[in-house]
Amino acid sequence: MCGICGVLSLGSNGTDARLIEKMIGTIRHRGPDESGIHCSGRIGLGHARLSIIDLCGGQQPMPNADGSLWISFNGEIYNYVELRKDLERQGHQFASHSDTEVILHLYEEEGEECVRHFNGQWAFAIWDSRKERLFLSRDRLGVRPLYYTWKDNCFVFGSEIKAILAYPGMSPEIDLIGIDQLFTIWCTLPPRTVFKGIEELPPASCLTVEDGRVRRWTYWKLDYGVGYENWAEEECATKLLASLTEATRIRLRSDVPVGAYLSGGLDSTIVTSIIRGFTDTPLKTFSISFENAEFDERKFQNEAVQFLNTDHHEIRISGQDIAEVFPEVVWHAEKPLLRSAPAPLYLLSKLVREQSYKVVLSGEGADEILGGYDIYKEAKIRRFWAAQPESRIRPFLLKRLYPYLNNLHSQPVAYLKAFFHVNPVDLRDFLFSHLPRWELTARIKALFSEDVRSAIGSYSVLEEIRDSLPPGFAKWDHFAQAQYLETSYLFPGYILSSQGDRVGMAHSIEGRFPFLDHRVVELAVRIQPTLKMRVLNEKYILKRAAGNLVPAGVRTRKKQPYRAPDIESFFASGKPREAYVQELLEPERLRRNGMFNSNAVGKLCEKVRSGAAMGVKDNMALTAILSTQLWIEEFINTPGHRSFGQRGSHHATI
Amino acid sequence: MQPFESEVRQFVIDNFLFGESGDDLSLEDSLLEKGLIDSTGILEVVGFLQKTFGIKIEDHEIVPANLDSIHKIAAFVRQKLGDAGGQGNESK
Q: How many domains does chain A have?
């Protein structure tokens, strides 16, 4: 795992090695082992390396044999062994044992189409000097990040926005539409980011700059239009397990030891169990536990550890821990956060690093592709109830939702009914499954200042999503529609990014995700929804597939998605835990940054201090305000100067 | 506006509108339909009423018919206080 950056000059000036050095310097946390630069004429490429495969060879940027191609690559191509054999049969000769070189050879063979053969997670740039073409690509699901912009007739790109901001004369500005999007769906719609003019290459996309023109295209899509297989239950479970086992096997390819995250849930336990089947050497596992029992899953983690007999390490998280690292986390995420949940993962990757590990496998993606989340269940119940609105029995199913949200369950059914009430118009809305979440989130926009609200005007991200849904979406069943929405937006934009790549790479830790092997994803797409969620039993087919690979307690437990405490991480007994919390919520500071209405924030703070703020909306609002204030201070007001969160070990300045 | 109404209204504005003027919040508006109350908001309303007016609200009384607008809440509080007063007198 690594960091990449580069500049392509379309003017008469060449690129400056010192500039590339400065850019790559901002993201050395992604690759502290080595760094390299290639500058020649109009192109400059930078690379920060975390050495995992071919520790001695594999330096980057890497040329092909005749030096006409240069690559800077972040990620892993897991099937490089098989691809290399094919290429060798076709006469290609290799100078190293790295997956990087395989990309170059396959590009020589197939040009841009080479990406279709890769199984892995990647963001890379190839400079094709013969064609004078810069070619960028990003993996299918969006595991690894890539951003770009234009400045002074130069195309500037990097793994993180920090690298781009290091380009001379950059003055970052807030993209208010991006902010509006994030304050509704928890992320922006790529290519838009929260920085005006800086774009994100969307997942499953390639981009070329050639003859002064930019061309972007998509090489893969999540398509539920392919139809379902008629597999019987047993047959389907066998296929799923075989596919997942193969996906895990190739994700163990590494020249350094590989560990695993254990959350206490089904997904990470099954992945860890599969790893155990491949190795006799002791396996290190890592997990987060919480002081607050509401969030803690230690009981199940311990059960999994005993069952799998791993060398286990855990980090116990308090609210104070979250408060202390939150500014660092925002610095790495480079965008506002609506939840504190990335912070414990940031501390977890630190623990892994302290154990001298660089690579961990986890169960990420299973809930998206196999229907694990309560949002799918909620949509199913609401539709079922709406079909017979007068039913006295059906609304009681609402009690089955979100068993982990204590406050929600303190209410009588009459109120649950009112909250989950189905408006007949919504039933026909393509976004039906996600409307409750997105509408609830959008309420926190009431805290925006007048100026911000008038700048955003009548813009609606939901309209933009409705207009950009894939052809055929209308014909997909409701379960597939909900899965598509979850996997296409929140997943790459928040889960894999703020809660994934960024908090892992902050401590140079690479996550690997067997459920995101595109063969597993494509198999899951063809599994009948009734096998994914049997009545209201989520991930039913995975539980069947897991069989004896996981302890019974983990298989039959109630699902609890990973969450962390929000308001109580920033305030204890009504008092801010850290000076920055106090400072950033002061009316003067709020007014200066201009994003929020200081009176409204004041009311929220009063509520927080009195201990009355407990709803989902209040928790989200406070976290959003703090993270946005931090983000503005760190990136907009004094770009490159980390005025907050200087505790961490990486003090890169832009 | 009667005293209960104005107190309840101020509570709603401070806690759910975060001090927005509340100009377009009428006494009859459904707090649910206006999206002012999230999934735990009603517990905050109940907590406020119990504390401010010294009434005890039973689970079966937590229904939209009693609590879904400022008017309904105020009427509910009046009724509860009336009931409590009546009971109080009897017990004396």
A: 2
Catalytic, A2? Answer: yes
Q: Tens of pLDDT along A210-252?
A: 999 999 999 999 999 999 999 999 999 999 999 999 999 999 9
Residue spans of alpha helices (H) in A400-548 = 406-409, 413-419, 424-427, 435-442, 450-456, 461-468, 478-485, 502-505, 518-525, 529-532, 540-546
Chain B positions in Cβ-Cβ contact with residue A597 (cut-off 8 Å): 18-19
Instruction: Please judge whether A418 and B14 are an interchain contact, meaning their C-beta atoms are less than 8 angstroms apart.
Output: no
- Residue B3 forms contact with A (CB below 8 Å): no
- What is the count of residue pairs from A and B with beta carbons less than 8 Å apart? 74
Interface test with B, best of A399, A409, A411 (most B CBs within 10 A): A411
Q: pLDDT digit string (tens) for B8-45?
A: 998 888 888 876 667 778 999 988 888 788 667 888 88
Q: Does the B3-86 domain belong in CATH 1.10.1200.10?
A: yes
What tens digit of pLDDT does each residue of A86-105 get?
999 999 999 999 999 999 99
For residue A645, what pLDDT is reported? 58
Catalytic residue among A2, A114, A187, A605: A2
Q: How near does any CA of chain B get to the CA of A187, in Å? A: 21
Residue in A81, A462, A69, A60 with CA at minimum distance from that of residue A250 = A81
Please answer yes or no on whether A446 and B38 come within 8 Å at the CB atom.
Answer: no
Q: Which residues 604-633 in chain A show a CB within 8 A of chain B? A: 604, 606-607, 612, 614-617
The model's pLDDT over A116-126, given as tens digits with 9 standing for 90+, comes to: 999 999 999 99
Residues with Cβ within 8 Å of A393's Cβ and at least 6 positions away in sequence, in order, are none
Partner residue opposite B18 with nearest CB, options A411, A446, A616: A446
Position A386 scores a pLDDT of: 87
CATH of the domain at A14: 3.60.20.10
pLDDT at residue B19, rounded to an integer: 61
Length of chain A (residues): 654
Residue A417 within any structural domain of the chain:
no
Q: Residue B58 — very low, low, confident or very high, per pLDDT cuts 50/70/90?
A: confident
Who's near A511: CB < 8 A, 6+ residues apart? A143, A261, A360, A361, A362, A364, A500, A501, A504
pLDDT of residue A652: 40
Query: How far apart (Å, rounded) are the C-alpha atoms in residues A158 and A80?
Result: 24
Structural domain spans, chain B: 3-86
Q: Across the interface, do A415 and B63 touch by the CB < 8 Å criterion?
A: yes
8 Å CB contact between B80 and B57: yes
pLDDT-flagged residues of chain A (< 70): 1, 640-654
In sequence order, what E strands does A197-256 have? 199-200, 205-210, 213-218
Contact B35 A612 (CB under 8 A): no
**3-class DSSP state of A188:** coil
ipTM over 0.90: no
Give residue A9's domain range.
Answer: 2-218
Which residue out of B40, B59, B63, B66 would a mutagenesis test of the A interface target, given it has the greatest number of A Cβ atoms within 10 Å? B40
Q: Is residue A557 part of a domain?
A: no
Residue A364 counted as domain residue: no
CA distance B68 to chain A (A): 10
